[in-house]
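To assess whether the prediction recovers the assembly geometry, we first specified each molecular entity separately, as shown.
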Amino acid sequence: MPSSNQLSRDRLIWMYTQMCRIREFEERVKRTFVEHPGVIRGHAHLADGAEASIVGSLATRQQTDLVMPSYRCHGYPLVLGTPARALMSEIYQRKDGVCKGFGGSMHLADPTRHFPTASGIIGQGIAHAAGAAFAAQVKKTGQVVYSFFGDGSTKQGAFYETLNLAAVWKLPIVFILENNEYQAYTHISLEDANAKAGEPLAQKAKAFSIPGVTVDGTDPLKVYDVMTTAVERARSGQGPSLVESKFYRFSPHGNAITVPPVPTQFQEHESIEVYGNRAEFEAAKKSDPIAKFRAHLIADGFFADADAKKIEETVRAEMEDVVKFALASPFPSPTDAVNYVYA
Amino acid sequence: MPREMMYAEAIAVAITEEMQRTPNVVFYGQNMAMTDRDPFVRKFGKDRVRITPISETAELGVAVGAAMMGLRPIVELYMSEFMLVAFDQVINEAPRMRYMSGGQVKVPVVFKAGFGFAAGWAGQHSNCIYSTMMGIPGLKLAVPSNAADALGLMKSAIRDDNPVVYLHHYMLMLDKCAVPDGDHLVPFGVADIKRAGTDVTIVATAWMVKKSLAAAATLAKLGISAEVIDPRTLAPLDVKTIVESVKKTGRLVLVDQAPRQSSAAVIIAGEIAEHGFKYLKAPVKLVTAMDTSVPYSEPMESFVLPSEEKIVATVESVLAKRVAAV
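The predicted structure of the complete assembly is given in tokenized form:
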């Protein structure tokens, strides 16, 4: 696989476009709580801030490689090619949703585009991802599985059990630990032994004698290079790696948990809402992955400001249409609920 | 010619035959397939037959993920209680994925575990936790009571496109019976009348079927004709066959190795209260374990568990009620 400085202009612009699509999609989800209260039920978790990490990772995929994220799962299928209309319709509880209204924000799935499912229970999907890698190994498909999860998941038994088993079986999988510094509402310094000691979370890999790398998750090209190494290792039968991708999520864990009929919205980030630390949040915003990548591409002459604006305008138009489409999509019939209990 | 087979052997034969039939069936668990001399490793190789660490969450979760990608994993768990440390995968992952994805995936896994080991295994290794897995939409639950059913239900479990918890009873492992020749499949959701009778219906599963059949033989000598029904799968549960039997006998005794309120018997009693009430000539009676943990010492263990004597006495009491009423 080429290193990031060999990526073509088209590929770089594709990466920038995908990052913009994720950001705009998540912004539209967030705005829905204000503009169309009640349209989104339950809990939604956004990936704003994770764009470089997601796109930099997925840019290393081969055609049939599998992606198995946690419940914070809107961004990946956008990059994999799932129509944004189908994703938003699912989040809006509609019939045209990618899961026909059975799953919602936390349980998106598009197996035809190599995104089998997402579990809403923290850490449990890591084991499913290893299972997909086990299937790839037994069936000799050559696939690599991309297992995405947050820093909070690394305190679950499923993480330790699965990484140990994956290392023993040399499964073709890359574990991407998205360290966004918050386990739901709790700052990582309060719950992670490595963080408390001022050490990187990637060193959890040492417990399984596999490579563990920390990368700046706000830079898609750095993520791309680290992932390239990890994916090649997995594909060549040498087993898993742990990639700690560090970035900051700009939205809080999810929309506020309220009991109907009290409306729910996204509050401010926990750093402000819970910890009163606005300075931390403002500092993180200065390292916005989209702004940084945009500036980088302009500085290196891959596109001009006007080209970037054109992409951003196209993405805005796409997501405007997506919201309109999803709002107009019919609800499932109540009796559809009896389908799909058994295969 | 039917083959005479031990219950434990029947399970192994079923797994072997299905692994021969379908390359996508894989089999793994702790403390198995440790050397190349392992019979499954010899037949199917180390790719399809594997040893795992003591990591039930990973074992079950890997099965769920592998099943979604086209394998048919059988996970050897040894004891049903070992599922408890990974119960999220059993209850809240395997049976949810198809539904939450709007029918896009299927999860054909078999979680195989023994249970009810009433041989001095005390409080944590002798339990009957099956009722916690009944009524989980999407999850199936097989509980064979003899070798023929053990074989036929395992083959059906492996071929099923849904997650199946397959519970075999430790106290039956060495019991032999005739197993039909050929590709013997026992369908899910079809109860079996293990002994026909006219005076009272006894419903029991696994080891309790054996005890109920012994009780029925004793009752026959007392002039009481007991019908013994084995649901064979608790999910799906064949309520219809039980109702039909109660229609005939008018009396129902439910025998269950679990404590009363965590038994399958209370669930069956509820179904009969709704669907069979008009046929009942006497109240439904339950013979279950007492509301204690399972004690270690043998006299205490025997005291808290259902026995042939308790079943006989309960049947007699149900019939006595009829006599009193007349």
